[in-house]
């Protein structure tokens, strides 16, 4: 019995070792990125990105896109070789060129206000005023006039009739009316 268990354990160990070794193949070698390459061209994949796909987006909450902004050119390739050395030897223009090859915008550029709130406010006010004009038009031309029973004199007469009939004397209006003093209870 013990011998069979050790054979089974050895077999499981060998299978798991093969499975781990099989997963060690690099993703790019499997041809997974072939479809992605048709979209991004020769741009270098430099990281995971914010969603695990090879795409570019300027995002403040995840500032490291998965691919570089521009495709490599001979000028950029020369600068990349030069950046592997001492950065103090790079000029400011070369540093900016390297940055612009990797990123489309700086933080201050993509976080700058766009003024989009103005159009949103304009549309909101336009549709609000349109709704008010529609309401006024409906009130004037579509709805029937208010019945006479909505007048103040008719409402007083209706209240007096409710009190005279003693409608709902336990919890309603009649319970709050003092019939001896002919006035509301205090």
From TrEMBL:
Assembly information from the UniProt record: Component of the cytochrome c oxidase (complex IV, CIV), a multisubunit enzyme composed of 14 subunits.
A Gene Ontology molecular function term of the record: oxidoreductase activity
Cytoplasm listed as a keyword: no
Protein name: Cytochrome c oxidase subunit 4
Function: Component of the cytochrome c oxidase, the last enzyme in the mitochondrial electron transport chain which drives oxidative phosphorylation.
Keywords: Membrane, Mitochondrion, Mitochondrion inner membrane, Oxidoreductase, Transit peptide, Transmembrane, Transmembrane helix
Pfam families, alphabetized: COX4
CDD domains named among the record's database cross-references: Cyt_c_Oxidase_IV
Any one biological process term the GO annotation gives: mitochondrial electron transport, cytochrome c to oxygen
Parts of the chain that traverse the membrane: 120-142
Bilayer disposition of the protein: Single-pass membrane protein
Localization (cell): Mitochondrion inner membrane
Family membership noted in the UniProt record: Belongs to the cytochrome c oxidase IV family.
Signal peptide as annotated in the record: none
Source organism per UniProt: Popillia japonica (Japanese beetle)
InterPro entries: Cyt_c_oxidase_su4, Cyt_c_oxidase_su4_fam, Cyt_c_oxidase_su4_sf
């Amino acid at each position: 019995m013990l011998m069979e268990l050790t054979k089974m354990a050895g077999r499981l160990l060998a299978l798991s070792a093969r499975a781990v070794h099989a997963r060690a193949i690099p993703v790019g070698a499997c041809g997974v990125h072939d479809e992605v390459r048709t979209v991004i061209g020769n741009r270098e994949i430099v990281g995971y990105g914010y969603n695990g796909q090879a795409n570019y987006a300027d995002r403040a909450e995840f500032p490291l896109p998965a691919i570089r902004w521009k495709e490599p050119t001979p000028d950029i390739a020369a600068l990349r070789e030069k950046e592997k050395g001492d950065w103090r030897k790079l000029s400011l223009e070369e540093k900016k060129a390297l940055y612009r090859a990797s990123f489309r915008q700086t933080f201050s550029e993509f976080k700058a206000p766009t003024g989009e709130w103005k159009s949103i406010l304009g549309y909101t006010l336009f549709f609000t005023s349109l709704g008010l004009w529609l309401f006024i038009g409906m009130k004037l031309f579509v709805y029937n006039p208010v019945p006479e029973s909505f007048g103040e004199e008719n409402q007083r007469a209706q209240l007096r009739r409710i009190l005279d009939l003693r409608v709902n004397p336990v919890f309603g209006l009649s319970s709050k009316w003092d019939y001896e003093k002919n006035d509301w209870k205090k």
